[in-house]
Description:
Blueprint: E1 3-7, E2 13-18, E3 26-27, E4 30-31, E5 37-42, H1 49-52, E6 55-60, E7 65-69, E8 84-90, E9 95-109, H2 129-140, H3 143-154, H4 159-175, H5 207-210, H6 213-221, H7 224-227, H8 231-240, H9 245-251, H10 259-279, H11 298-308, E10 310-314, E11 319-323, H12 326-343, E12 347-349, H13 350-357, H14 361-370, E13 373-378, E14 396-401
Parallel strand pairs: 1-9, 2-9
Antiparallel strand pairs: 3-4, 5-6, 6-7, 7-9, 8-9, 10-11, 12-14, 13-14
Helix pairs in contact: 6-10, 10-12
Amino acid sequence: xxxxxxxxxxxxxxxxxxxxxxxxxxxxxxxxxxxxxxxxxxxxxxxxxxxxxxxxxxxxxxxxxxxxxxxxxxxxxxxxxxxxxxxxxxxxxxxxxxxxxxxxxxxxxxxxxxxxxxxxxxxxxxxxxxxxxxxxxxxxxxxxxxxxxxxxxxxxxxxxxxxxxxxxxxxxxxxxxxxxxxxxxxxxxxxxxxxxxxxxxxxxxxxxxxxxxxxxxxxxxxxxxxxxxxxxxxxxxxxxxxxxxxxxxxxxxxxxxxxxxxxxxxxxxxxxxxxxxxxxxxxxxxxxxxxxxxxxxxxxxxxxxxxxxxxxxxxxxxxxxxxxxxxxxxxxxxxxxxxxxxxxxxxxxxxxxxxxxxxxxxxxxxxxxxxxxxxxxxxxxxxxxxxxxxxxxxxxxxxxxxxxxxxxxxxxxxxxxxxx
Length: 420
């Protein structure tokens, strides 16, 4: 029976295993000329004892390099759970000397800059000082430092990505509709174009500035169901809540209008209905298929999206996302109010619009005043025929556009703080 004797050495014996195959170092003619050349690296420049124990084994053949680590994610998982020993038996004395060993699993190492047809005699590309420091950190650095290097590499933006994002941004900017800015428009672009020097109330806000003539003609072609709607059909829509009370109230009076005026008002009502659909959308639904009225022309849909939403770049700049900021919602309310004034001969009730857009009456009042309207209250008549006071909570608010204009802007309230 052999006796064991544990031996201590300066360096552990190296055990290596090639992950992708078995190493053949001998052939019939003797030692193979393709035997790999082994190199052993260790960290000696740090006072940290834990870092000084890190080793890297490199096997270099004529065609490929193999690398093994005793630390990090590339190290064999069994190293932390067991200890490797190598025994050398002397058959004469029947004694075995036992040495500590380090186990390495060698994997093929493919450098990013290596090319299949690159000659071995070619000089390697020179690295900057920072690249050399990063390479050393990845090999011998602590976990915290390696994470910092990985984070910096991930957040590094290449020049190609910047140029690509810039080209996409320019393309989007060119695709946006270009509307000439008039002096009569407000600074934020919320209010429609206004002619403050108009001598007739019909010329203050023109329909062509809100809905282009070609869009109005496209809407007239599909507004037949509004023009031909009878009382039974309107009652059915009211029961199913297909359209708002603003649209239904105006449909009841269309029958008495001339044919041209009937088509024009029906087209405006269809435009207003689609505008109320967009106003009620959530942010998550903007980039999905928007439920416009089924017969709405594609040109009108594109006009609504381009005029009342904003496009932003997401990710690497190759994808667009629509958003609906508060300024755009205010723009919708202002345009809807002007269209309602045009439909009602420049004197319209605010309650039906409030129901269509699901907004407070105070918001409609502030928008109406900003458009130059005079907001008044009219008395409600009860079922018994009695008139309620105009200051009653149930009194109807009416916006009327008349000359001279009374344009007033409501200042934005400051958040927080106390009055002094």
